[in-house]
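To make this tangible, we now present a fold written out as tokens:
***
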Amino acid sequence: MFNLKNLIDNFDRMMAAITFAEAGEPERAMDILYDRPKQEKDKRIESGITRREETRPGLRM
């Protein structure tokens, strides 16, 4: 018998994989779909993310 939670989880994983595949990230889509372990290149991507300096003016009351 099908478990509703498993069906929903599988559907969510498929939709996430489709989204990444459409965005030009087929390797990431395959990782999500087949639950493959993270690769070394994922660390490189995360290390390139930096926080931008706050340039918006502050709120004055």
